[in-house]
Predict the 3D structure of the following.
Amino acid sequence: MREMKPNAVPTAEEMRRASLERVAIDASCRRAVLTWYASAVFWLLVGSTFALLASFKMHIPDWLTESGWLTFGRVRPAHLNTVAFGWGSMAGIASAIWMMARLGRVELKYGGLLVVAAMIWNIGIAVGAGGILLGHSTSIEWLEMPRPAPIILAVSLLIVSACIFVNFTRRRERHVYVSQWYILGAMFWMPMLYITAQWLCVELPARGVVQSAVNWWFAHNVLGLWVTPMGLATAYYLIPKVIGRPVYSYYLSIIGFWSLALFYSWAGMHHLVGGPMPAWMISASIVGSMMMLVPVGAVAVNHHFTMQGHFHELKHSPTLRFVVFGAMSYTVVSVQGAFESLRQFSEVAHFTHYTIAHAHLGMYGFFTMVMFGSGYYMIPRMTGREWASNWLIRLHFWSCALGIIMYFVTLTYGGWLQGLMLINPDVKFIEIVVKLTPYLHGRSMAGCLMTFGHVVFGLSLVLNLSGVGKRFGGGR
Amino acid sequence: MILFLGFVLTFGSSWAGLVYAPRLQLGGLDSVGEAGTAQAYPRVRTEQEERGKRVYEANGCLYCHSQQIRSTTFGNNADIARGWGRRRSVPRDYVNDQPILLGTMRTGPDLANVGQRWSADWQHKHLYNPRMMVPKSIMPSLRFLYEIRPMVDGKPSPEAIALTGAWAAEIPEGSEVIPTEDAKALVAYLLSLDQSADLPEARE
């Protein structure tokens, strides 16, 4: 955490020098960050298209069935992989590169290498998503991309991690802020997770249900040790930055970080609750999931008290609006997730759309919204242009915010009904299918709203990158 | 550096607990009976059944269909009461599955024992268009696994799928629907799904 001495007001000269330093740092990140972030938005648009296809196919089952490559079971994993590894990971890496430079108070080195890594990553996603559509999916959830895509991604990931670590050792600011812990953690964990999981699920596969254990250990840790740390790092950096006051409590942020590292990594087996697994494993994961209330509480309290008295600023700062929406979703989704792991709860919720709603609240309501906020803050500092239109930003926020709320409410309610019917053997299966149809339509409408927001955001970004907009007075 | 030590220890603990420990406990599990023969359970799949499993994987069946029967004490015993299986699934049922296809969603019914429920003919018709067999189904049609071709000498071949109702009128006069090798393999795989063998550890 930056030491903020309330009684030591910086002089005008110090402020000018700090401002120049930030301009130089931003300029050094320009190519790398723009490449990663713009690629991310490209995959967001591709992934949203797959999402809509999959969603509409659930209530128009005879649509586009002439050839195999657009069948539901291929479009659905293509959606997951393009949004999770294309959009989410790339936007997270863009934010991480920039925050690490800013917080270390040192210009980014090896920016060119990071641009190359982004290109490699893009090739990996294209090969992986294409492979899934052509019918080469591995059918292991979150690891569907067929060879050679995982190898390509792993190479890029190792380059990114190495660049981040080397830049970290070159830092001029000795104090290490909580955002840096989260990013270093993510950059350390993800390559290990990805390589271990690929190894034990695809290359030299573990036999039978052990493979399921590795699968969900990985899949849940992608959220817990990769996506969540990058999202929280961004929220921890941007909220204090925009409102101009330090984080409420240093100690809470320590507790939040280490309890997340310890407990989240144990949580994955609740995806297998009730399944043919040793009971102790599921129990261990339920404990891990419940203990997640500790880091979540710590982060929620910390962000709330940081924001206290500054909520009116949500009106003026699009960054803050997106990030605070994300931070609030994080609290809701994590508390929900902790209870969802309980056996009594899972008897209803498991195997239903309730879980899908939960996953989207996390990946979208929390992470994606934070990454939008991060883009709104970073991009003008990279291009030297303000956003062309406030109206477009507002349109983006409201269509995505309303879209995800509608998505969550519709599928949570529909999913719960589905769960209650599934465990009532007197209800015929086909009746469940029929009763669920209105909620599937609702999901498609919500998806259209979110996709519309993404197109608006894409338009804003293209305008900004092509130099439309007022000149940005940098240094802030 | 303490930070990195912490990263390694937290990560290592969950790896040891959730990856290494189950491997120690279950890694040595094998079929019962004479391994590698038709008498063993679970038996080794035929080449065609394995090919069918790959078709199942390629087309993402697992995003809507699970393959696991839960214990009588879980969820009002609904899995068994629905007739999806006679006993709960246990780790041994999956020792020959690579990858394992437990699934996490039930938009459609569980398939752990689907081989006991339907004939090959029913499966082909259902895959070609699910609504021909289950009018209100939302399962996608997998008709890209079937070939529509003119009948030879005006006579239907023995392999042809007997379409009914509107679906029969949809194809050109004098043509028939023939399953591709992939479709036949997929049906062979579905027919092989059967966990009815009595295993001592599955008794409750």
Notes: Chain B touches chain A through 73 residues (CB under 8 Å). The helical segments of chain B are 2-26, 47-58, 78-81, 114-117, 120-128, 130-133, 165-170, 181-192. Chain B has two domains: 1-29, 58-199.
